[in-house]
Design brief:
- The chain is an all-alpha fold and 358 residues long.
- The protein has two domains: 71 residues; 252 residues, MFS general substrate transporter like domains (Growth Hormone, Chain: A), CATH 1.20.1250.20.
- It contains twelve helices and no strands.
- The protein is globular.
- The protein starts with a helix and ends in a 12-residue tail after the last helix.
Length: 358
């Protein structure tokens, strides 16, 4: 509080300059962009419950397919309308939300792509790890935060240290090393998430992931800003913020959808095949959980089974299957993130070899 107070007092000394000209906000462009991106993120978020292409049993169905397909197509159509509208605003001499021509700069596109994948991977990792630590292992919020601290330490060290220790290093090489570090972290996590795994399996992956994120953070901002003239730096900043927020949103939604989809398939298949679970219980599980199995702890599940008057042997079998299926869901989601980190690595060819001039 004291620090905030000092900042507020000192901020009164900053001179407030009047803008050279008033800029009218492109309300239509803002609406188009928000609606298009919102539809795509919402569709990905619901894909685990509704199905990605084919509608899941008990879920909604639009013209023979899952609503996810149509929502993504609608979002893409709205974004195309956004593109057309921005060109129309420019042709009429107005001030666009963003000039589409700026996206023709190859270095800028490469930097924005890397920003997107960095935050997609970051969002997915920050979604999956608390599930494992707090739900699967039952750690408190404080203990979960402590287990994630190694990532923060190495992120700060890499972000601040890489430019100082390697000021002339190739930005492309550093960005590639960053994505490789994140790939290695995800692979180690996948290998470590086995039956009986404890919280200690996250330490080295978190250290590696932090190094990767820090290496990326040390380069990408300078790459995008230096790719265009200074007068367009505001537009680049807006695009950068949009891409990072979109990456986090899609990473979180995609990871959640994959976790639930893989968990549901594994759990229902295991319950159906288990000899200790009676047929009526299997039928109820298939009916009630057809749209998705929630990621819950064994304590919550046991209480639910007790209320449903499920027998002891069946309860033990269902709890055992829940533990195994949770790990299947997490490993599947992390495997997809690992694949995306390799995809991001192959898309870095337009990142410049030489650091931008100061």
């Amino acid at each position: 509080m004291l620090l905030v107070g000092v900042i507020l007092v000192l901020s009164r000394r900053i001179a407030d300059e009047k803008p050279e000209r008033r800029v009218r906000l492109d309300l239509a462009g803002t609406g188009f962009s928000a609606l298009g991106l919102g539809l795509i993120v919402f569709a990905i978020l619901r894909s685990g419950t509704w199905g990605l292409v084919r509608a899941k049993a008990g879920g909604p169905e639009w013209i023979g397919l899952s609503p996810v397909v149509w929502l993504i197509l609608a979002g893409a159509l709205v974004l195309w309308c956004f593109y057309l509208w921005e060109n129309r605003v420019i042709a009429g001499g107005g001030e666009p939300l963003v000039d589409p021509a700026i996206l023709r700069v190859k270095t800028l596109r490469a930097g924005l792509n890397s920003f997107f994948f960095q935050y997609l991977l970051q969002g997915g990792l920050f979604f999956a790890m608390p599930l494992f630590l707090s739900v699967a292992l039952g750690l408190s919020a404080i203990d979960t935060g402590v287990r994630l601290l190694p990532l923060s330490f190495t992120l700060i060290l890499a972000a601040a240290g890489v430019p100082k220790l390697f000021p002339t290093a190739s930005p492309r090489r550093i960005v590639r090393c960053g994505f490789l570090a994140m790939f290695a972290a995800l692979v180690i996590l996948i290998a470590g998430l086995q039956d009986g795994a404890g919280a200690g399996v996250t330490t080295w992956p978190m250290l590696l992931a932090g190094l990767g994120m820090g290496a990326l953070a040390s380069q990408l901002g300078a790459i995008t800003v230096s790719s265009v003239p200074d007068e367009q730096s505001g537009e680049v900043g807006g695009l950068q913020n949009t891409v990072t927020n979109l990456g986090i949103s899609i990473g979180t939604a995609l990871t959640g959808a994959i976790v639930i989809a893989a968990l549901s398939t594994s759990f229902l298949t295991g319950v159906e095949a288990h000899a200790d679970i009676p047929a009526p219980t299997k039928a109820r599980a298939s009916t009630n959980l057809g749209t998705g199995v929630p990621f819950i702890s064994n304590v919550e599940l046991e209480a639910t089974l007790k209320e449903a008057h499920v027998g002891p042997r069946a309860t033990d079998a269902i709890l055992e299957q829940n533990e195994a299926s949770r790990l299947v869901g997490l490993r599947t989601a992390l495997a997809v993130l690992a694949f995306l980190s390799l995809l991001a690595l192959f898309l870095t060819g337009r990142i410049p070899e030489r650091p931008p001039a100061p």
